[in-house]
Amino acid sequence: MGWALRSAGAADRETIVELRAVVMRPDLERLGRFDPHRVRQRFRDAFRPEQTSVIESDGAFVGCVALRPADSAYWLEHFFLDPRVQGRGIGSAVLGTLLGRTDAEGATVRLNVLQGSDARRLYERHGFTVESEDPVDVFMVRVPGARTVRRPGGVPGAAG
C-alpha cells in the first residue's frame, strides 16, 4: 500500500480531531480517562499545522504525525493512523522516514505513549527506549542512529 506525506493545513484540523478521538478511545477508556470533548479539544489547542504532516494513501487521508522541535531534540506527537489501514506497514514506513530525517540532523526524538498502548511496540522496534513512566504515560527517547529491530521478512514493525 503506497503512502505519502504532505504538509497539514488549517482545513485538516477537524479531520485529524475526529481521527484522534477514534484512535485514542480504546486506550483512554481502558485507563478510565476517555472524555469525548476533552480528547478533541486537547488536539485543537495543540495543533500546529507547520509541524504536522498528513499521511495519505492512494490520495486519501489515513493519518497524521507531528514533529515538534524542542531543545536540540524533537517531540514526536499526534501520530494517528486510521484503524482500517493499521497493520499494513504504513506507520512503520512513516516513522522510519521521519527518523531518517532526525538521524541526519543528529537529533534525539522523544515521545509519550499511553500505558498499555500497542503503539509502544512499534516505537521499541524503531529504537525508542523508556525514559520514565507514570500511571498514564510512558515517556520514550530515541538517540540518533538507534538500532531498528526488524521483524521476520526484513520489514521494520508495522503500524499499530
From TrEMBL:
Keywords: Acyltransferase, Transferase
Gene Ontology MF term list: acyltransferase activity, transferring groups other than amino-acyl groups
Keyword Endoplasmic reticulum: no
Lineage: Bacteria, Bacillati, Actinomycetota, Actinomycetes, Kitasatosporales
All copies of domain N-acetyltransferase, residue ranges: 3-150
Pfam families: Acetyltransf_7 (PF13508)
Source organism of the structure: Streptomyces formicae
TM helices/strands, residue ranges: none
Protein name: Acetyltransferase
